Amino acid sequence: MASTRHFLTLLDFSPAELNAIIARAIAMKAEHRAGTDQRSFPGKVLGMIFAKSSTRTRVSFEAGMTQLGGHAMFLSPNDTQLGRGEPIEDSARVISSMVDIVMIRTFGHDIVETFAAHSSVPVINALTDDYHPCQLLADMQTYVEHRGSIAGKVVTWVGDGNNMAQSYINAARQFDFELRIACPEGYDPSPDLLTANRDRVSIVRDPLAAAAGANLVVTDVWASMGQEAEQQARETAFSGYQINAELMSHADADALYMHCLPAHRGEEISAELMDAADTVIWDEAENRLHAQKALMETLLLAAG
Ligand code: CP
Ligand code: NVA
């Protein structure tokens, strides 16, 4: 199984491969809109394991696999043996013997790594506590569609040093941009990840200073899934870490802003930005569909 390709973080693909997936996603989006038949994978089955809630990820993977001619199967720990303690290793062996590709949304990143190590088919990380690489494919596609290449640009992250922030650190490396992270003390991304990427990534505590001249400003919820009990403490800690019109006035005049959604208007993002007529946030959400179709196509073709 060592030769099976997986997509657990952005580092599993080379920069050239990632850019090829984004180019393919843009092409597949145009084909889809033109009504082109994209059923290149009849009979292929995607197993979708969700240990956390989802709207965009579930809809985009299930719709995407159907559009590719295959079938997607929703598997919840609540009603599979995964929730009753069957080891990940055993589950991976069994599930991968029956499906062609697997997508997992779960808590610990080690769970997707263990699953992938024992899977005979490609495994896609659809969000862990540490990374959300599929969202980055959609975000990078959205930037390219609206502004062209992100290489050499400045990206500002405002908020928690969470799974999305850590995926942006990997993206800075793979897509070659400067990343400034504005997060309150105590909510930094992994120190190891910061150290490994110190040539491109810096912590700038003041959100307005971090946003100065930025080409892209990104945020996410203050309390991620699994941190619901910390909501109140985080509302205090993150006060002032909101993207809004005032913050965007410090960015480049052509700057875009993004949010992976779901969003909390009035917390990490103002209602005004969420509801602006020219926001790209809805394109960003839709692009999950196109980017993941390109990703699944790439992985299925590599698996032969
Ligand atoms: N952005 C994202 O992954 O959304 P869902 O949690 O709705 O899948
Ligand atoms: N950081 C958020 C992203 C949701 C798509 C979470 O993990 O809940």
The percent of residues in helical segments reads: 40-55%
Basic shape: globular
At CATH level 3, the topology of the largest domain is Rossmann fold
Sheet of most strands: 5 strands, parallel
Please indicate the percent range of residues in DSSP E strands (runs of 2 or more).
5-15%
Count of individual beta strands: 9
CATH superfamily of the largest domain, by name, is Aspartate/ornithine carbamoyltransferase
In sequence order, what are the helices and strands, one letter per element? Answer: HEHEHEHEHEHEHEHEHHEHH
How many independent structural domains? 2
> Which regions have little confidence, pLDDT < 50, spanning 5+ residues?
none
Q: Report the span from N to C terminus.
A: 14 Å
Helical segment count: 12
Order of strands in the sheet with most strands: 7-6-5-8-9
Distinct small molecules:
phosphoric acid mono(formamide)ester, norvaline
CATH architecture of the largest domain: 3-Layer(aba) Sandwich
What is the C-level CATH assignment of the largest domain? Alpha Beta
Average pLDDT reading = 98
